[in-house]
Amino acid sequence: MTQLNGRRALVTGGARGLGAGMAEALTAAGARVMIADVLKDVGEQTAAGLEGAGFVSLDITSDADWEAAVAHTVAEFGGLDIVVNNAGIEVTSLIIDTDADELRTMLDVNILGTTLGIKHAFRAMKPDGAAGQGGTVINISSVAATIAFPGIAGYSGTKSAVDRITRIAAAESGRLGYGVRVNCIYPGLVATDMGVKLAVETSALGLFESPDAAVGAVIGLTPSGRLGEVSDIADAVVFLASDQSRFVNGIGLPVDGGMGM
Question: Which of 33, 61, 80, 82 is most buried per CB count within 10 Å?
Answer without folding.
Answer: 33
